[in-house]
Specification:
Number of helices: 7
Helix content: 25-40%
Strand content: 15-25%
CATH architecture: 2-Layer Sandwich
Structural class: alpha/beta
Order of helices and strands: EEEHHHEHEHEEHH
CATH topology: Nucleotidyltransferase, domain 5
Largest sheet: 5 strands, mixed
Number of domains: 1
Strand order of the largest sheet: 3-2-1-4-5
CATH superfamily: Ribonuclease H-like superfamily/Ribonuclease H
Shape: globular
Length: 199
């Protein structure tokens, strides 16, 4: 599996652009990927998205940065030697759709990723239910309250630093997936944090 996190200029795969991608090879977690790019010509830039990812409009339109097309080709090359290229992460369908749209814009004719993904939200929900716990509900929006920070906390890890960074996000996804699926710590930066249900 590949834990992946995409930062973008907004949430629409066809209207917004990737601005950075972070990834961790779960079979070999010393292999990581982090690249930034400029938005594609004509891509929309959402102010709220820029607050989340910490980039400025000047940074994501910098002509000296590589193109989105170059980034997506590098990501596919990173994934090439991995035996199981299933994408995993929090709300990973968002990341998959942005990567796939970027690949299409780049003319990538050999897209190596399947439509199926592993979502850490679903894994955490199931883990809680199997332990007899009730997953949190966001009362205002009447939906699951298991965002990434809630999942990190459930797995014994502090909230992710702000602004959000794609590699930090990918590492967070990789760590919680390892803990939820295998009851094992994965990355050295999280070693100090115990797995709560194993205490």
């Amino acid at each position: 599996m590949i834990a992946v996190d995409v930062e973008a200029s907004g949430i629409g795969p066809d209207t917004h652009s990737i601005v950075s991608v972070g990834a961790v090879d779960l079979d070999n977690p010393t292999r990581t990927f982090y690249e930034e790019c400029r938005v594609w010509e004509g891509a929309h830039i959402n102010d709220e998205a820029m607050v989340v990812n910490g980039f400025t409009k000047e940074q994501v339109t910098d002509p000296n940065k590589q193109s989105e097309a170059d980034l997506v080709h590098k990501f596919a090359a990173f994934a090439e030697p991995i035996a199981d290229r299933t994408l995993a992460g929090q709300n990973v369908s968002f990341d998959r759709d942005l990567l796939q749209a970027a690949a299409k814009r780049a003319g990538h004719t050999n897209w190596p990723f399947a439509h199926r993904t592993i979502d850490s939200h679903s894994l955490c929900w199931m883990h809680m239910v199997k332990r007899g716990l009730t997953p949190p509900i966001d009362a205002e929006h009447k939906r699951s309250g298991l965002n990434l920070d809630a999942i990190l906390n459930y797995c014994g890890i502090p909230e992710e630093p702000k602004p959000h960074n794609a590699l930090t996000g990918a590492k967070s996804h990789a760590e919680v997936i390892s803990r939820l699926l295998y009851d094992k710590k994965l990355l050295p930066e999280f070693e100090q944090y115990e797995i709560p249900w194993l205490k």
